[in-house]
Amino acid sequence: MSKPIMSKPLGARVLLRVEKSSDHTPGGVILPEDARESANKGTVLAVGAGEPTPGGGWQDVPLLVGDSVLFAPMSGVDMMIEGQQVRLVSFHDIVVNLYTAPDELTDAQRAQLEHSHATEPISESIAASRS
Predict the structure, then answer these.
(1) CA angle in degrees (0–180, nearest 5) for 55-70-92
(2) Tens of pLDDT along 89-121?
(3) Can you give the pLDDT at residue 26?
(4) Number of separate helices (H) and strands (E) present in the chain
(5) Residue 28 lies in a domain
């Protein structure tokens, strides 16, 4: 496992470790570079503070370090930070948070949740928005 990133993105940006796309098919055929699918799944390494809302409030980035996410293809910028290959993406380019069950949260994720005041599980917030 790689060491934790000590850098923090600015605004509503997120640093991701991108999962590598496969270089061969399930049948074993090796794919040339231009035929491979663009990787669009990653693990959150660091989260920015968020951004101001038009009404004068503040919108936190509702992600935790360690979350697995799906992001829009071809979004973000690949870069090296602290010796690690990462991708910096806008929070708005993240389309799915592959939610971690509350009993699987690490102590660091729990502390981050308490700090951001985002303690309501996603399933409850979705149900509340539909009622």
Answers:
(1) 20
(2) 999 999 998 866 566 667 766 666 665 544 444
(3) 75
(4) 2, 8
(5) no
Number of domains in the chain: 1
CB 86 within 8 A of CB 5: yes
Query: How many Cβ atoms from other residues are within 10 Å of residue 60's Cβ?
Result: 16
Q: In the numeric block, which tokens belong to residue 79?
A: 């870069």
Structure token pair of residue 51: 């951004």
pTM above 0.70? no
Please report whether residue 75 resides in a domain: yes
Amino acid symbol at 92: H
The whole-number average pLDDT for the span 25-51 is: 81
Categorize the per-residue pLDDT at 123 as very low, low, confident or very high, splitting at 50, 70 and 90: very low
Question: Which residue type is seen at 20?
Answer: K
Q: Quick check: helix, strand or coil at residue 49?
A: coil
